[in-house]
Each structure stands twice: as structure tokens, then as C-alpha cells.
Amino acid sequence: MAIADFVKSARESFRVGWKIESNWTDPVLFATYQIIRPLASLLIVAFIVIIGAAVGAGTSSYYNQYLAWLIVGTAFYAYVLQAMLGMSFLIHVDRTRYEVLKNIYISPSTLHPYLLGRSLVSVVNGTISVILTLLFSVAIFDGLLHMSIPLNLLSVNLLMLIPAVLLGIVGLLSIGYIICALNIVSNRMEFILGDSISGIFFLLGGVIFPVSLLPSSVQYVSNALPITYFLNAVRDSFGLSTGSSYMSDLAFLALTTIGALLVGIAVFSLAERRARQLGLFDRKSEY
């Protein structure tokens, strides 16, 4: 019964979150909004690569391979953006704007299924962005520019892709849990946490260039991040070279995801206890 209640609370929280996220416009405009940021980032970097290839900085085959590598990394980075930005504002919006966080906290279901349901909205939005970014990228670079990029969306290995995506989502939501915990006990950090952490992941996670190109001292940080192995495993499923094997990437992804999950639960428990002691669940931020 407890599991059934948890699932029911998470499902209803998802419905609430989806209505909050999507009821401000029509579905077409909402889908367009979801793709603008990842596609814009991709096009900026991709055309820098194309210009570099045009002036003879390297062979066209190398740049076509790199563009495929870049497209997949940027597309699946949408999960990072949606999870970090969505969960960084969640506590602030419910505590300050709608003033319902205190009511949710004292309800029998507690905050955990509510945060899970709301975070799954970010997962759905991220999935929309990933699919649309991949489709538009193939249409632009293969369809319009005829670059013959080695990226066949129909030949992706789903048996490799699905476990990687599921583990990656769990790892990212675990980090999002830490962000929620920090926002419970802090004030006005929601405006910098999501962008700051997603920016760190963009630089150190191997989104637009391999981690091996980073300074050796920084690579230690990259190798501790779930997104590094998440993107490697995803690229493996598309048949792109990553310099490592799929099974090792998946194993390290599982290990870092478990670590992020344990840290997320521990940090959230500490933050929840402190917020209860200091009466922070109904604190308002006045600007």
C-alpha cells in the first residue's frame, strides 16, 4: 500500500508539473521552445567546425565524424539542462510563488514522491528536446548541406541506448535532488545553481570535445561525473568512437549514478532536517 501511495503521489505531482510547464502556450510553440536552446548551441559550435574544415584545417571525413559525435553529445545534453534548471527552480516556485511547499511537506505523502513526479516532467521535456534536436540536425547537415554525416538514427542500438539513458536520467535527477536540498536551506540561489552546474557539466562532461583534451588535473573531476559516461555510452549506441568500450562506460555510469544517488539522499535528508528545525519550509523571498 505504501508503494501504491508513493506511485499515486508521484503520478499526480507529474500531472501538476506538466500543467505548470506546458499550459502557457499551444503544443507546437511549446515544442519549439524546448528545442531552441539545444539546437542553437549545436549550430554555433557545428558551424565553427564547418568553417574550420572549409579553410583546410583537416580532412572532411574527420570533421564529418566529429560533427556526428558533436550532434549526439549536444542533443542528449538537453537532459542535463532540463533536469538542472527544472529542479533548481522547483523549491523556490512552490515555496515563494505558490506558497504550497509547507502544505506538501506536512501531507502524508511527504516531499519525495512530489519531487520525483515534478522531476519527471523535466525528463519528458528533455526527451522532446533530444528527439527534435537529432531530427533537425540530420535534416540540416545531411538534408540541406549534404555533408553525409555518419549518423543514422534508424540504426541506433536500442539495447545499448535504453540502459544508458535510464541510468543517466537517474544520475542527473540525483544531482537535481542535491540542488533541491541546497535551495531548501538557502535563499535566492535558484538563479545560479542550475546554470552553474549545467555549465560545469557542459565543459567537463565531454559534450563538445573529448575529456582527454582537458588538463590532466581537471580530468579527475570529469571522470567522477555521471554525464561523462552517460554521453560515452550513448555515443557507443550510435556507433560513434569514444575511445572506450560500451560495457566499461555503462559500468562506470552505474557506479557514479549510485554514488550520486546516495549523496543526494543523504544531503536532502540533512537539509530537510535543518529546514524543519529552522522553519524554512514557509520562508518567503521578498525582492
Can you walk me through this structure?
With 287 residues, this protein is mainly α. The protein has one domain (2-278). Helix content is 77%, strand content 0%. It is built from eleven helices and no strands. The chain has helices at 2-22, 27-54, 60-76, 78-97, 101-106, 111-144, 158-185, 190-204, 216-222, 226-237, 246-278. The longest helix has 34 residues, at 111-144.
DSSP strand (E) fraction? under 5%
Mean pLDDT: 84
The shape, in one word, is globular
What is the alpha-carbon Rg in Å?
A: 20 Å
* Number of strand segments: 0
Residue share in helices?
Answer: over 70%
Number of domains: 1
- Coarse structural class: mainly alpha
In DSSP terms (H or I, runs of 4 or more residues), the helix count works out at 11
N- to C-terminal distance: 43 Å
Output the helix-strand order.
HHHHHHHHHHH
Biggest sheet, open or closed, and with what strands and sense? none
Q: Name the poorly predicted regions.
A: none
Offer a concise description of the structure:
The chain is mostly helical.
Fill in the keyword field for this structure.
globular, 11 helices, 77% helix, 287 residues, mainly alpha, single chain
SSE layout and pairing:
Blueprint: H1 2-22, H2 27-54, H3 60-76, H4 78-97, H5 101-106, H6 111-144, H7 158-185, H8 190-204, H9 216-222, H10 226-237, H11 246-278
